């Protein structure tokens, strides 16, 4: 579609996640999923129903190593939030970034992701979905993650091999997974993955008051620019 529009001289613009509230909302949901896994929220809710107190004992994000795979708008927003929890952060990205400028403790190129995964207590998937990243977290790469770690996906379902994730959860290689995105949406509530240690939300990461208003403002501004004969912001098809 982008190429067809370009061939016809039609500019295509999209709304960036950063600066509109979208990236912030997705980063917040990533933290929510990580906390729910770390503090065993599903078990805690069940204990309330059973009138059990002082259990379960969870783990803290403090001093844990978090690997953020993808340092776009969402990844950068997530880094800022994880720093507030006292995490040690490894940032993984295709293009090199300055660790100090983002507040990460260590930068690792995408080619070295497996070694970074082996040292991480939490792995956050924030890479965009494209042919090069489809199935990026296959069985081999999931096995590269430190045993007992948590995996949180706020990117796209297809970035992770579903069967490999289920197997890693079932066998205990991964302690748990947090998902805001799925392979088919809406997901089947009877999907076996929900019987495992999975905390999930129905793709609501970017669905906040700030994001909706920020996206609306961006679109409205582009409409006004077109009306005034100006180039719209964020043209993505090379015109």
Concise structural overview:
Helix content is 37%, strand content 14%. With 239 residues, the protein is α/β, with parallel strands linked by helices. Strands 3-2-1-4-5-6-7 form a 7-stranded parallel β-sheet.
What does this structure look like?
The protein has 239 residues and is an alpha/beta fold. The protein has one domain: NAD(P)-binding Rossmann-like Domain (Rossmann fold, 3-Layer(aba) Sandwich). The chain is 37% helix and 14% strand. The chain has nine helices and seven strands, in the order αααβαβαβαβαβαββα. The chain has helices spanning 2-7, 22-38, 41-49, 73-84, 99-102, 113-117, 139-144, 162-171, 209-227, and strands spanning 65-69, 88-93, 106-109, 122-125, 149-153, 174-179, 198-200. A seven-stranded parallel beta sheet has the order 3-2-1-4-5-6-7. Helix 7 (139-144) links the parallel strand 4 and strand 5 (149-153). The protein is globular, with a radius of gyration of 19 Å. The two termini are 14 Å apart. The model has no long low-confidence stretch (mean pLDDT 96).
């Amino acid at each position: 579609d982008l190429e067809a529009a370009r061939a016809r001289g039609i500019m295509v613009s999209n709304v960036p996640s950063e600066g509109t509230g979208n990236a912030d909302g997705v980063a917040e949901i990533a933290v929510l999923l990580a906390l729910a896994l770390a503090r065993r929220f599903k078990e805690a809710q069940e204990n309330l129903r059973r009138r059990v107190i002082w259990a379960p004992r969870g783990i803290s994000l403090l001093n844990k190593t978090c690997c953020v795979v993808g340092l776009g708008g969402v990844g950068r927003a997530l880094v800022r939030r994880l720093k507030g929890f006292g995490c040690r952060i490894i940032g993984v990205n295709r293009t090199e970034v300055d660790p100090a400028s983002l507040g990460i403790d260590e930068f690792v190129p995408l080619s070295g992701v497996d070694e970074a995964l082996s040292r991480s207590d939490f792995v956050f998937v924030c890479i965009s979905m494209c042919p090069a990243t489809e199935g990026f977290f296959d069985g081999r790469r999931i096995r590269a993650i430190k045993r007992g770690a948590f995996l949180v996906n706020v990117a796209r379902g297809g970035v992770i091999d579903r069967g490999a994730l289920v197997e890693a959860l079932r066998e205990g290689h991964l302690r748990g997974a947090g998902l805001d995105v799925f392979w088919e949406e809406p997901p089947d509530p009877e999907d076996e993955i929900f019987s495992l240690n999975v905390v999930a939300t129905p793709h609501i990461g970017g669905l906040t008051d700030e994001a909706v208003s920020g996206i609306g403002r961006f679109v409205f501004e582009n409409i006004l620019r077109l009306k005034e004969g100006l180039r719209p912001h964020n043209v993505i098809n090379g015109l």
